[in-house]
Design a protein that fits this description.
Shape: globular
Low-confidence stretches: none
Largest sheet: 5 strands, mixed
Order of helices and strands: HEEHEEHEEEEHHHHHHEHHHHEEEEHH
Distance between the termini: 61 Å
Number of strands: 13
Helix content: 40-55%
Number of helices: 15
């Protein structure tokens, strides 16, 4: 059973919130964490229904001072002899019928909503394969009728090790874990995210998406076939051939399939990350998440220098978000196919607009931040965005994004300078409209200009 801090707001953060250098990735002990001057340990805290690997979002303050406090609050760090060890974990708050298990590597502490099982390496894959099989779930349902799956419920399921099948199970499960890990790490909320899967060395997003779709389809089909093979093996071992089918419903395959609208939105999110310098087209993974800025990481596409990207209904600034997006598309796919790629993005988004640029601008103006908050939202923790929005209100008069890891004492002042410049531009535009209205005879056009 895992720990309960007694005050999650105080001790827990989502991994992308602290300065990245303060997190102990893959550490094997709290002592090493303290010795290396780290502050946070990786932390397992439940999550949605997902098999094999993933749901790794949290870190816990585990330096010397916080470890000492945690020893006296909450439930006083139970099972601490197992912290930082490789384990199999599951969601405590789940019925037996929706039980699923995931591999958790070295370096994690675990919450009371993430009970964990520890065992020798030579039976680890066999055990997780069994725990994700139909026989295990069926037996667990017999033993547990509640909405919580405790360690005692799992321990009561009969464990049968079939030596002849052990090697096959070992290899099949390892393949499942790797597929799930690749899928998890393709999303930017994984700390091992390297590069967006559509940011390929091709000249159009359409080609990149087609390649990505084929990859996803092949991975999905292969994982489904492996899970059905594992079910068949364990059904045979437990003698349940007359009771259970090995077939796995597609909705229970917990890796992503390609989705054009969702994947284009995530590509836009990655592009915004490059605009702020969180990512770079020249290095894999995080280029900047706090700490010392290294300009040598950026050459193909240079991030916005002042950490303020305005979002307006027309182009008023040279570092307007749509202008930067066009520059990013050109850097990734080339200048010759820019219009083609803008059309592809606009079609995938499906927003209103008379041109591709207008569709994309309307997306940034109305929907991007909502989608960003949804991406960086965790049940029980609310919205925790990494790009913050300055917003003047419902009329969309002025919006600007900043990156929280680049926030400093000058950031708000810079935003105000953009606002003042935009007000000046608006005043000039209003005067021009007033002058125009004196000569317009078309009533419909006049009404549109007055509304503007």
């Amino acid at each position: 059973a895992g720990l309960n801090t007694g005050d999650n707001e105080r001790f827990l953060k989502l991994w992308y919130e602290p300065i990245i250098d303060k997190i102990a990735f893959g550490y094997d002990s709290q002592e090493r964490l303290v010795r290396d001057g780290k502050r946070y340990a990786l932390f397992n805290k439940g999550g949605g229904y997902r098999k094999w690997y993933g749901n790794q979002m949290f870190v816990i303050a585990f330096d010397k001072r916080n470890y000492s406090i945690l020893s006296t609050v909450g439930n006083h760090l139970p099972s601490r002899q197992y912290y930082f060890k490789q384990c199999i974990t599951w969601n405590r708050i789940s019925s037996a019928s929706s039980f699923c298990a995931r591999k958790c590597g070295v370096g994690f502490v675990f919450d009371d909503v993430s009970p964990s099982a520890f065992m020798d390496n030579d039976v680890f894959n066999y055990a997780i394969g069994l725990m994700n099989s139909k026989p295990f779930c069926t037996l667990l349902c017999v033993l547990n009728h509640g909405m919580k799956t405790e360690t005692g419920n799992v321990q009561k399921v009969p464990y049968v090790f079939e030596t002849k099948k052990g090697s096959e199970v070992e290899h099949l499960v390892e393949e499942c874990i790797q597929y799930a890990k690749v899928d998890w790490d393709m999303c930017e909320f994984s700390w091992e995210f390297k590069r967006h899967p559509l940011a390929l060395a091709v000249d159009t997003i359409a080609k990149a998406f087609e390649s990505w779709k084929n990859e996803c389809d092949n991975r999905f089909v292969r994982l489904k076939s492996i899970e059905e093979r594992l079910n068949y093996i364990f059904i045979e071992i437990y003698g349940l051939q007359d009771e259970l089918s090995a077939e796995v419903d597609e909705k229970n395959i917990t890796i992503h399939q390609a989705d054009m609208k969702r994947d284009i939105k995530s590509l836009i999110s990655y592009a915004v990350g490059c605009m702020f310098g969180r990512y770079s087209l020249d290095v894999e993974g995080l280029a900047y998440a706090g700490g010392q800025w290294d300009s040598s990481k950026y050459s193909t596409f240079i991030p916005d220098k002042d950490n303020c990207i305005p979002i307006t209904d027309k182009r008023y600034f040279d570092d307007d978000i749509v202008v930067l997006f066009e520059k990013w598309l050109t850097a990734v796919y080339g200048e010759e196919t820019l219009e083609q790629n803008l059309d592809f993005v606009a079609e995938a988004l499906g927003n209103k607009g008379s041109s591709s640029r207008e569709v994309i601008r309307n997306y940034f103006l109305n929907d991007f931040f909502k989608d960003h908050c949804a991406t960086y939202s965790v049940t029980g923790s609310g919205k925790r965005p990494i790009y913050w929005l300055f917003d003047s209100g419902k009329q969309n008069g002025f919006k600007a994004l900043i990156y929280m890891h680049r926030y400093n004492e000058d950031t708000a002042g810079r935003v105000l300078i953009y606002l003042q410049n935009l007000q000046n531009k608006y005043e000039t535009e209003v005067r021009a409209i007033d002058a125009m209205l004196e000569h317009i005879t078309d009533q419909r056009q006049a009404a549109a200009e007055e509304k503007r």
